[in-house]
Amino acid sequence: xxxxxxxxxxxxxxxxxxxxxxxxxxxxxxxxxxxxxxxxxxxxxxxxxxxxxxxxxxxxxxxxxxxxxxxxxxxxxxxxxxxxxxxxxxxxxxxxxxxxxxxxxxxxxxxxxxxxxxxxxxxxxxxxxxxxxxxxxxxxxxxxxxxxxxxxxxxxxxxxxxxxxxxxxxxxxxxxxxxxxxxxxxxxxxxxxxxxxxxxxxxxxxxxxxxxxxxxxxxxxxxxxxxxxxxxxxxxxxxxxxxxxxxxxxxxxxxxxxxxxxxxxxxxxxxxxxxxxxxxxxxxxxxxxxxxxxxxxxxxxxxxxxxxxxxxxxxxxxxxxxxxxxxxxxxxxxxxxxxxxxxxxxxxxxxxxxxxxxxxxxxxxxxxxxxxxxxxxxxxxxxxx
Length: 385
Prior knowledge:
This protein folds into 2 domains: 2-138, no CATH class; 144-384, Purple Acid Phosphatase, chain A, domain 2 (4-Layer Sandwich). It is α/β, with parallel strands linked by helices. The strands form 2 sheets. The chain has a 6-stranded mixed beta sheet. α6 (177-188) links the parallel β2 and β3 (194-198). The chain has 14 helices and 12 strands. The chain has helices at residues 2-31, 37-62, 66-101, 107-111, 113-139, 177-188, 207-211, 215-218, 233-238, 240-249, 276-280, 287-290, 310-315, 335-341, and strands at residues 143-151, 160-166, 194-198, 227-230, 253-254, 258-262, 266-270, 300-303, 320-323, 347-351, 354-358, 376-384. α1 (2-31) packs across α3 and α3 packs across α5. The longest helix has 36 residues, at 66-101. The model has no long low-confidence stretch (mean pLDDT 93). 48% of the residues lie in helices and 17% in strands.
């Protein structure tokens, strides 16, 4: 039954993807004048780019190689280009519709329609390419975000707690050895008491992670109180059992709907991702079950990958929650969608005595591009009573 549902879902997504690409292709073809040399190459270039992502992801599961990497990178960049091409083509078609409806007809455009279409085609390609390139450079330059929080509870002998944290790393083909090593270096440079990884550490398929031996970098993460992590939806999409086993083999302590007392000073709780039921038929525990046996006289910090139901978290007596997942849309203007979906799409919020921070993440899903937000590492300083 689950296989049938997945097949139906995949078929719908593939159909929608094909229709969008066909719409962009036809509009591009119509913009190029007959007899132009580039017009002969255009269908082949478009076919390569539009099919690369699907081919790359399929090849990656059966044969990880420079060829599959090439298709993955090409296809991932195409996702960003396709998105902005779609917006541009829709905008141009709306302008054409307005010109068709209103009585005023611009003579310059009518008299030079073929040339205008050609130059508009190359202008859209140039501007979109520049935007995506700038977004890629931005995605490669994560910032360190400092967060200062006060929790009015005693924490044993600890007066302060320094946390280095990251979410949404998406290790795999696109976030490979170089970017993973940089993440580890940035986290270690914080000289924090504890390191936390708030889900989506692996980008679905574990194959490229093992192939590139990315666990070797993770083993270099060092903090006196340890390195802890939770699952995200992408661990479950790719198979959480294998991903959790791999991470634990590389010195990452996974919190699977559990809470632990650390240094006799504070509790750290970690929830399984809310998509665990959808992808592995495993029901995650309620907050109350996760926190059974917790002494709330101590500070309680929790990681939950997807930032839903913040009021429930506040009502449960959590002092601080770290989440990720949203990427704050990753590519403008998708941030407006995540802002509509989540009470907190990115940044800090306080509800009652509970502090929340939703990270935009370190890596990304799909295109290695960020427009409208920055990737980040969290440098969190907590002062206790």
